Amino acid sequence: MNNDDRRIRKTKKALREALAELMMNKELRSITIQELSDTADVHRATFYAHYRDIYDLYEQLEEAMVNEMGAIIIHDPTHTYDELFKSVIDYVIENSKMCRMFLKNHTFHERISEFLEEKYFDIWKYETGEVMVTDEWEFLANYHIQGCLAIVTRWAENDYIYPKEKITDMILRIDNHFDEILT
């Protein structure tokens, strides 16, 4: 069967959502394949047709999320930050369970932070014409990334109750002042 097959996409989506649901109350190492399969309403053999083990599923999901977030960020280097942050917040809402699952994970935070820092530097180099990353940029990028992640993480922990428009506006207001520091 082809990975583009609708049934395969549906099965993988069910497994992803089941994992995210189970991880709201349990750690990854405590989740069994049987429990995951039951929650997703798929047979254990179906799970093994797509993944080696539960860690393989988790790693593939994490990789996909980092790549999807990266695609949003690098989509257009001439983007406006309004569009960028709205797209990121929309992505978080569309993938709310998985984002909540990953935002609780320290390793994911480190990985997405490193990725975002690299992209920030690319954007800042593009915008300023500079070729070298300064110590100041490294401090500012770390501050900005961790702040944005903290806002989104708190939002996720509170089940996305706060309106997405207000979250976007909050990040944009902070970002507008942040741009003043860079210039």
Automatic annotation (TrEMBL):
DNA-binding region extent: 32-51
A matching Pfam family: TetR_C_8
HTH tetR-type domain segment(s): 9-69
Keyword terms of this UniProt record: DNA-binding
PROSITE patterns, per the entry: HTH_TETR_2
Highest rank taxon of the organism: Bacteria
Protein name: HTH tetR-type domain-containing protein
Native source species: Paenibacillus auburnensis
